């Protein structure tokens, strides 16, 4: 049996998992190179190099924000697609039920027409017998 997945994720669940993943990566034993990439440089921060680093960090932060917005939009799009799929399945079921009911009603009306024709024919025959027998 496949595992159950959540259909609807909230922003705090997505961002919280990213934060907790980052926290887990930082808490584990790591070497200096990994720390540099996860925490950023830890050396003295001054001069034009610091400005470049800050500028690059701001760009990275902007990209992260954009990507989080994109992920949120993809999740919302998935929810809308799920809703649309549910509605289309419901519409298909209703169309099938309508078709079946229309066939049933058509048969009923055909039999009613046949009964009326038989009654009229019987009345005509009786009238003819009454006229002929006089």
From TrEMBL:
<dbReference type="GO" id="GO:0098876">
    <property type="term" value="P:vesicle-mediated transport to the plasma membrane"/>
</dbReference>
<dbReference type="GO" id="GO:0005802">
    <property type="term" value="C:trans-Golgi network"/>
</dbReference>
<dbReference type="Pfam" id="PF00957">
    <property type="entry name" value="Synaptobrevin"/>
</dbReference>
<dbReference type="InterPro" id="IPR042887">
    <property type="entry name" value="VAMP4"/>
</dbReference>
<keyword id="KW-0597">Phosphoprotein</keyword>
<dbReference type="GO" id="GO:0031201">
    <property type="term" value="C:SNARE complex"/>
</dbReference>
<dbReference type="InterPro" id="IPR001388">
    <property type="entry name" value="Synaptobrevin-like"/>
</dbReference>
<keyword id="KW-0472">Membrane</keyword>
<dbReference type="InterPro" id="IPR042855">
    <property type="entry name" value="V_SNARE_CC"/>
</dbReference>
<comment type="subunit">
    <text>Identified in a complex containing STX6, STX12, VAMP4 and VTI1A. Interacts with BAIAP3; this interaction is increased in the presence of calcium.</text>
</comment>
<feature type="coiled-coil region">
    <location>
        <begin position="81"/>
        <end position="108"/>
    </location>
</feature>
<comment type="function">
    <text>Involved in the pathway that functions to remove an inhibitor (probably synaptotagmin-4) of calcium-triggered exocytosis during the maturation of secretory granules. May be a marker for this sorting pathway that is critical for remodeling the secretory response of granule.</text>
</comment>
<dbReference type="GO" id="GO:0030139">
    <property type="term" value="C:endocytic vesicle"/>
</dbReference>
<feature type="region of interest" description="Disordered">
    <location>
        <begin position="1"/>
        <end position="51"/>
    </location>
</feature>
<feature type="domain" description="V-SNARE coiled-coil homology">
    <location>
        <begin position="52"/>
        <end position="112"/>
    </location>
</feature>
<dbReference type="GO" id="GO:0098588">
    <property type="term" value="C:bounding membrane of organelle"/>
</dbReference>
<keyword id="KW-0812">Transmembrane</keyword>
<dbReference type="GO" id="GO:0030659">
    <property type="term" value="C:cytoplasmic vesicle membrane"/>
</dbReference>
<comment type="similarity">
    <text>Belongs to the synaptobrevin family.</text>
</comment>
<keyword id="KW-0333">Golgi apparatus</keyword>
<dbReference type="GO" id="GO:0005768">
    <property type="term" value="C:endosome"/>
</dbReference>
<keyword id="KW-0175">Coiled coil</keyword>
<feature type="transmembrane region" description="Helical">
    <location>
        <begin position="116"/>
        <end position="133"/>
    </location>
</feature>
<protein>
    <recommendedName>
        <fullName>Vesicle-associated membrane protein 4</fullName>
    </recommendedName>
</protein>
<dbReference type="GO" id="GO:0035493">
    <property type="term" value="P:SNARE complex assembly"/>
</dbReference>
<keyword id="KW-1133">Transmembrane helix</keyword>
<dbReference type="GO" id="GO:0090161">
    <property type="term" value="P:Golgi ribbon formation"/>
</dbReference>
<feature type="compositionally biased region" description="Basic and acidic residues">
    <location>
        <begin position="9"/>
        <end position="26"/>
    </location>
</feature>
């Amino acid at each position: 049996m496949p595992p159950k997945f959540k259909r609807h994720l909230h922003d705090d669940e997505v961002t919280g998992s990213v934060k907790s993943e980052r926290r887990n990566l930082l808490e584990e034993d790591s070497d200096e190179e990994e720390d540099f990439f996860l925490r950023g440089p830890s050396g003295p921060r001054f001069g034009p190099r610091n400005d470049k680093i800050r500028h690059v960090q701001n760009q990275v932060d902007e990209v992260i924000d954009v990507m989080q917005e994109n992920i949120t939009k993809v999740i919302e799009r998935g929810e809308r697609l799920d809703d649309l799929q549910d509605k289309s399945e419901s519409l298909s079921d209703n169309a099938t039920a309508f078709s079946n009911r229309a066939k049933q009603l058509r048969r009923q009306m055909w039999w009613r027409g046949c009964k009326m024709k038989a009654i009229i024919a019987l009345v005509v025959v009786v009238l003819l017998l009454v006229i002929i027998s006089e």
